[in-house]
Design goal:
Largest sheet: 7 strands, mixed
Structural class: alpha+beta
Helix content: 25-40%
Order of helices and strands: EEEEEEEEEHEEH
Number of domains: 1
Oligomer: single chain
Distance between the termini: 46 Å
Number of helices: 2
Strand content: 35-45%
Shape: elongated
Number of strands: 11
Length: about 210
């Protein structure tokens, strides 16, 4: 299942002697609870490996039909985007070609003006732990991200925004549906585990 998560963060632009015009931000934050409406979720430190960042595109508003503004291929120094894991999460630096790419120039202007201040990423989950499955509002701890497909600068850095464009809204709905499915799957597994334990205890008591 492909999911997306969005964070309000500082997105900055600057001129770099080596890379030219640069956009910097933090698309992934560790240990920050996200309210999904039916549960809370956080991404644990150690959840992101080098393998998960093998080939990542930099987009705007998750528009997968657009030409990427930058790309991290094997996250090497020759890539136009670099992703760095630290104690707080994953930060990024993307080199923008504002001279020949109109979208890059528009994003550069929007970030400079403070009109764009959020980042988001599209990913798959390979490991998770649930807390409080018996409650009405459990917590999902993501322990391992399988793959990061893209990171985006986003106009609306929160799920509850209602003015978000229809394409992005569909993406958010699909992401939440995926998280709901993960929750229901975890609850079914927990219920099955309890049934097995209860049957084992019943058999043991009959033998006694």
């Amino acid at each position: 299942m492909i999911e997306t998560r969005t964070f309000l963060c500082e997105v900055e632009r600057r001129d770099d002697e080596k890379h030219g015009r640069v956009i910097e931000g933090r698309p992934i934050v560790f240990g920050q609870r996200t309210d999904l409406g039916f549960c809370e979720e956080d991404i644990l430190p150690g959840a992101v490996s080098d393998e998960a960042m093998k080939d990542v595109r930099f987009l705007v508003n998750h528009n997968i039909d657009m030409i990427p503004l930058a790309r991290s291929r094997n996250n090497n120094e020759n890539s136009t985007m670099q992703l760095m894991v630290d104690d707080e999460g994953v930060s990024m630096r993307a080199d923008l070609d504002i001279e020949r790419n109109r979208t890059a120039a528009e994003l550069d202007s929007a970030v400079e003006r403070g009109d764009v201040s959020g980042m988001s990423f599209m990913f798959t989950v390979d490991g998770e732990e649930w807390e409080g499955l018996d409650s009405d509002y459990p917590v999902r701890h993501i322990t391992k991200i399988g793959q990061i497909f893209e990171v985006s600068a986003v106009t609306w850095p929160a799920y509850e925004q209602t003015s978000i464009n229809a394409r992005s809204l569909d993406s958010v709905k699909a992401s939440l549906d995926s998280a709901k499915e993960a929750l229901e799957s975890a609850r079914r597994s927990e219920e099955l585990r309890r049934q097995i334990i209860e049957r084992s205890e019943t058999l043991c008591s009959k033998k006694d």
